[in-house]
Predict the structure.
Amino acid sequence: MKRGTVYLVGAGPGDPGLITRRGLEVLRGADVIVFDRLVSPELLLEARPDARLHNVGKSSSGHSLPQEDINRLLAEEAKAGRSVCRLKGGDPFLFGRGGEEAGYLAEQGVSFEVVPGVTSALAVPAYAGIPATDRRFASTLAIATGHEQAGKAGSDVDWAGLARADTLIVLMGVRNLAEITRQLVAAGRPASTPAALIRWGTTGRQQSIICDLSQVADEAARRAFAAPAILVVGEVVRMARQLCWFEGRPLQGLRVLVTRPRHQASALADLLREAGAEPVVCPLTRIDPIAVEAARLSQLLGERWDWLLFTSANGVRCFGDLLWQAGLDWRSAATARLGVMGPGTAAELEKRGLRADFAPSRSVAESLAAELPGISQGTSILLARAEGAREALPALLRERGASVEVFPVYRTLPDQDGAELLAAALVAGDLDVITLTSSSAVSRLAELATTDSLNRCTIASIGPITSATAREHGLRVDVEAEEHTIPGLVAALTAYVAARKGAE
């Protein structure tokens, strides 16, 4: 990225996976990020740790920062020699004021680049099973803003002309929906024309109303549909019943808190999204590798070990990084057999071309200690794990006669950015499920939120140790995974939700 340049980047319509490759490159490299209200918070986790973030989000009812001030902010940051990512929902040049911002930058002599985005005008109907055009039903398409009061004197929107388009898509029109539909019918659009109103499109909260044009405003009021929502009018709406593919999945409509460290959060977030939920990613902890001198590591690996044990994927990753930094590789521990706590840790070894020699029947320290084979008096074990982890595993192995060297390779620290995202999510008050995947995350969560606020949600835990920590903090655990893995956690939550729906 070029310093002193503003990049006007389309973030896409809501699903963070719909940002373009170029947009993600800019986001990850920027010195400064200026973002809007509808940008997925998950995307902000892609920013550099030292990047400065400015929330200038606007809504129909208010402005976090006036547009003139946003313009000046962009120019000032660029003139100070910084690369600026102006992250805007949808596409910056479609009702996104990107043209105004680019024009101001040009007047100020500031270099800028436009990175188009996936517009909600096309993506949201697509997620509802509605193609904007289809040669059987629609050859013309009109896209309009409904933000302006329909029918007012001096209106810039020609609703009579728009009524003649085969497909009409209206953005930001919920507040004026009744008047918009009245104007379209008055202009000659049949009252029976199929219409769809799609709320929170492309996210796990997506909901659709499909009815006649004359009924859509009343139906929206009855179901309390509020912004953000998109109106689609035209025969293509009939295709939704056949082509609807996104809604109706098992976790549809649920907002699920993900507290894993940011480098691990996507695995859980992606599975939740595939099941229809909307992940709310708030990493509460981060992994800080512990530095070890090369001489100390060489000395340690020069000893003969019968077993090298890992209790987490982070332990494997940080141990491997230490080897690399010291000019060593996994052959340095060739005499040791490799033992892991569970399938997630085994998978991390497999990424490095290594196969675990042993994994216990249950992914808990007690099972690993009891089931590890070949343990006798003097069996030597090197245990690479987190600093300050539970003492159960080394203590139980020593009871069996093993000689255990605990080797801390990382520590778990608070993630302040995640804490700020959590605070915003709690203020919004629309979380449905909280997922707990480690005792450290539970303890951090208990520091940041009240027990009452958390217990109002369904709480899903990855396993018995995490559940025990949650209960120690006064939390009620509703779901516990039988297989103590991320897929196991999602499967358990899915089964729980299905059982509740069946009981209703």
User: Anything to note?
Assistant: The mean pLDDT is 93. Residues 199 and 207 are 5 Å apart (CA to CA).
